[in-house]
Amino acid sequence: MLGQSITKNAVLLAVFAMSTALLLAGTYLLTQDRIAEEIRKAEEKALLQIVPRERHNNSMLDDTITVGADISALGLRTEKQIYRARQDGRVVAAIIPATARDGYSGDIDLVIGVNADGTVAGVRTLSHKETPGLGDKVDLAKSDWILNFTGRSLRDPLPGQWAVTKDKGVFDSFTGATITPRAVVATVKGVLEYAGDNSEVLFGIPATVTPEGAQE
């Protein structure tokens, strides 16, 4: 009797486990398309903060270039995507991922929009571990400091002035925190240089030398 009882319970448990697995699999199959669509919408919303819809008429999520850790100027740890914005087929901007590896508390992941004319379309911080109330001011939700890059280029300021004021540059640092803004400024400058060096791939425009050997 005991053996029969154990066998019966084992069968019931196996049936329950199988039913649960089938239910979870079915739920996943029914919702995976919706989840993927929601993720896509969230990604697009983030991109549109840098290149608004009125500036392009293509799907940036479907116009990408893969970049990886082999590109030192971007500081990436893993493969990511550059997104291109086009207006009637012409590339007007590229949104480039980059990582500032020398933040005070570690990596600062950024996306940097670069217009075809070499100016910054916008910068956003995706993730960081900076100190609340100090280094976290790189986050737009905490401070508008990150907006200071919009419209800048390697001509404004010149490459030698791409630094925080403490280092005789033009970008303000945070009260009590210099390492974090210094890292972000250097990373944005590096991305502008990368965009200049690769302007033909990104925008279909041959690279042009600018003052102090920078690329436009």
UniProtKB/TrEMBL annotation:
GO BP terms in the entry: electron transport chain
Q: Where in the cell is it found?
A: Cell inner membrane
* Entry-annotated residues carrying FMN phosphoryl threonine: 178
Domain FMN-binding per the UniProt entry, residue ranges? 103-195
Q: What is its main location?
A: membrane
Q: How is it placed in the membrane, per its record?
A: Single-pass membrane protein
Q: What are the names of the required cofactors?
A: FMN
Q: How does it assemble?
A: The complex is composed of six subunits: RnfA, RnfB, RnfC, RnfD, RnfE and RnfG.
| Protein name according to UniProt | Ion-translocating oxidoreductase complex subunit G
What species was this sequence derived from?
A: Pseudohalioglobus lutimaris
